Amino acid sequence: MRRLTRTGGALPVWWLLLAGLLILPVLVYGRFLLGDELANADVFLAYRPAHAWLAEGLRSGRVPLWNPYLLGGFPLAFSEYGWFSPLNWAPLILFGPHTGFYLAVALYVALSGLATFALARLWGAGALAAVLAAGVYSQSLLVIGGAPLLNQGAAYWALPAALWCVQRHLDGHRLGAPLLAALVALTLLGSHPQQALIAGAPAALYALYAAARCRGARTPGVLLPLAGAALVGGTVAAVRLLPSLSLLGASARAGGLEFSASALGSVNPLALASGLLLPSLDLPFGLLRPQWTAYLGPLPLLLCLFGLGRVRAERSGPFVAALGLAGLLLALGSYTPLYWVISRTPLLSYFREPSRFLLWTVLAVAVVAAWGLEEARRRAPTLRGAAGALWWLAAVLLVLGVLGFGAVNTALRQNERVLLNNLRLRALSQPRTVDYPVSFYVEGADAGWRQAVRVTDLRSPGLLVPLAALLGTLWWWRWGRRTPWGQGAGLALAVAPLVLYGQAHLPGIPAAVVAETPQSVGLAREAGGDAPPADPALLPRAYAWLPLATDFEARRTAEATGQNADVVSYRLLRNFLAPNLGTSYAVPVVDGYENLMTREQTLLVAALGSERAGTAGDDSQTGLTRLGLLERRQRVGERWGLLAAAGGGTLFSGDRLRPETWPSSVRYERSAVAGGAGVPPLNVYQLVRPLPRAFVVDEWATAASPTQALGRLIGAPPGESGAPPVVVVPPPGASAPRSPRAPGSERDAARIFDARIVRYEERLVEVETEADGDALLVLLDANAPGWTATVTGAPAPVLTANVAFRAVPIPAGKHLVRFSYTPPAWRPALLSSAAGLAVLGLWAALTLRRGGGRAGGS
Description:
By secondary structure, the chain is of the alpha+beta class. It contains 33 helices and 19 strands. The chain has a six-stranded mixed sheet with strand order 9-14-18-17-11-10, with helices on one face. The protein has a five-stranded antiparallel sheet with strand order 12-13-19-15-16, with no helix packed on it. The radius of gyration is 30 Å and the shape is globular.
């Protein structure tokens, strides 16, 4: 191995290359570390706001468990964000919610490269070839593009790391099993549950593969420590797992997803093929949409062909090949019958996005390409016969492709007027729905023309980089691999296109735009007309009406006029405070960007027309999300009382998709939130007298189910003419208290019914009440497993009021009602995690004391 001379000794070149790969993620995400925001709706609507809240809690010395701003209250710690991982905590504590978030992303990408390097070395690759494997895997578009969804990045590095731990254990190294236990714990604590399964399953399968292949690996002394590692790691992660199980049982996903939902994200075979070579060839009007996350560059794929000869020779070769093929087949999802069987597997039935299984294929390609780099150098086949013909065919196709793209792009530009007119006439002649005006379809034609120009422009990085990578691959195949520095050239030509193309697929929102505070924040904080409460969490809630539909229209307009659609979209959704952005400005919101909301929350937001509500209970009577936009605009006019019953005070809507009607008790101001720079203005609707967060009533109705309660609230009055009724649903197996006053009867104005919130914290709410008869205290905060109540120290049942909120019956007199939240199974979870940590620490200490080295491998 070539060495560079340094003072104090010689330093191998591959060490410098590996160090560069570990530093590279910081450079890749550098602009985001400095203040830009990734132009990815999942990131800026969900992951960043959630982790900003986590960072604020950690920096104040606590781990937040309940978010009072989102969905009327939500146990965000037990959703899919990976709340309890120290690898997330450290950057967030040290560098804050923005830089810390993107630094954690860069950390996971760097660990992905390091783990892949170590695995490739263990599986027979030389040092330089292992660096190539690390670069291909860690800089692949699947990893670079998916890691900003932080809980996915937390699993990407675990896939090669877990396989490395298993292999080290099989080779007889005592530390392999305890390291695997620590890795399992970190993965379960920090990852999306589906990604944790995807990352962990290959390690378990490889242990079985080794046991089937080698008699020595079948002994209890080999397999039991691996099983123990999984058990200990799961025990450490109990703090995240046990509470989540109860909440999952209360969610709309309980029982699993239908196949049509679980297959969302299936990879079209044509999209996969085009994504492998030209991932930006996104043809307009839905003609072709490449699976860009599949792009690995042409040279790694070519090296895989060279590496196939090593598959049978290497001990892990057949497994790696099978893993890559399985990932490819599973990613096809509904395009293959295999996925129907997989989706019925326990645990996997809760998840969607089959494309995530491509992670297996990416790792397999990276490892086999590392073998191929060495085989191409060692065997150095000539370019005679079929190989030579293939080289010339590829060269001719590349030349024809360049000429073809250039000719098409020139023709599109020169015939702009004629083509645009034809496209517009074609758009207007097609059958249309009544949801959008004629201009919307004209703008679609204009946007399609611009897209066609963009994807055929040879100057565009999205096309230039893949074509240059093809040219580099042909050069390396024909000349470069024969040179003394052929392996280094192969490494550069494999990794550089991924880095460059990754930058093209990581568009950013400028830091100056991110720093803007939308006008809608001030309007939401003024809701109700009276002085706002001291605690922002007690403000009447805001609701964004059709934000995604409005965003879809605004993006199309921006694309048709040549504006930056990402910036337009970001500004619009931030103006909407939708769906989670309100939490960034301490404005509570009715809606939320969550997959594990309770069934009751799902019913409520579906009935209000939320585009994030899924389909639970979504029928023509209660839900709006399956209806057309025009019908939704008409029906929402019946549901102002439902918004009031959910503690709502402000509704934001775009002008074109505004509600059709609103009552006199709702104050309407058109274009109250200014637009500009391609962003349409927003209208604001404010209830003149929104319900207080806590109030006492002596009249209520009962319902047997949340759906029945929802039906009674739809059409209820929202404001001055009378507050919406309170509808109570008792807990399963119990009965609701009777209303002291007959429904509809006149209330004596002299009677006293009062409630005052005296303490409002994340997991504790205290309300002083006064009533001169039996009554019901309603707290318009979400009910969820884990909330309990006492009335002047005596335990009291927590009922569900107004579909999704909390209520407690109170006797006459003055009382202090205390609501407290302890996550389900929290004490056993804490004890289990502590015990797991103790066992893991003792296991590691004993292993190190015994030397930690080989113990006579299998």
